[in-house]
Amino acid sequence: MYQSKFMMITKYLVRNKHIPAKTSVSHLFFLAFPREYQVSINQELVKSDSIPTGKDGYNKPPILEDVMEVAKDKVRAQSINAFEPGSNFAAANKEMQKNLDLKKGDGKKQEKMLEEYPKEPIQSQIKSMDKAIEALASKLNAPAKAEYSRGNEAPSGRLYEPRPCSYCHREGHGAAFCHEAQKDKREGLVKRDGKFFNLPSGKQIPWDPSRPIRSVVATKSSKPKPKINAIGTHQS
Predict the structure, then answer these.
(1) Model-wide pTM > 0.70
(2) Cβ contacts of 109 within 8 Å, gap of 6 or more
(3) Angle between the 86-102 and 107-116 helix axes, to the nearest 10 degrees?
């Protein structure tokens, strides 16, 4: 019930472009569960290596279907005790029947009690999940904050400070795509070694945020090379 309602809401939001993709709500689905469920679900995702990572090494939101599959197993595990011996269950069932008989309820009432008694934990979980669905839907349908609402003026300042290129100190690109670095490399003025730059001699250029790496390359390349006088032969 919880999963079908959640998928219905998610498909509606994706279809109407309120969210870019189903992966955008996997964390909301995860947060709808109680804390102890979250810990258990997260452990299972880590154990099954279901948490993807980006190129920068940071974790990305897991696939929604993976989270749902793990969550379904955890909810089912809470309602089933796989290690309970059959003899104990039979004894407990007999004791429950005896207690019901002592209450002397009429046949229909007694049958109803027997029918509803084992389902009580599941019904409680379903009610809890319905409340979580309502809370999730209200979060997704809530209007955005005023400063990001459509129609407001664009912010005057920058939302973030761009990082300049370490090689030329210009904004808009990194050292891997720096035109100046590629030009100097073609001319043999600098060599690239992973994320570091080396002089033609093989000496690594230390990174210093106060100056571009190209300034070191330019300084070293402008130094005059020592002249070697040729020894001439004189004929007598």
Answers:
(1) no
(2) none
(3) 150
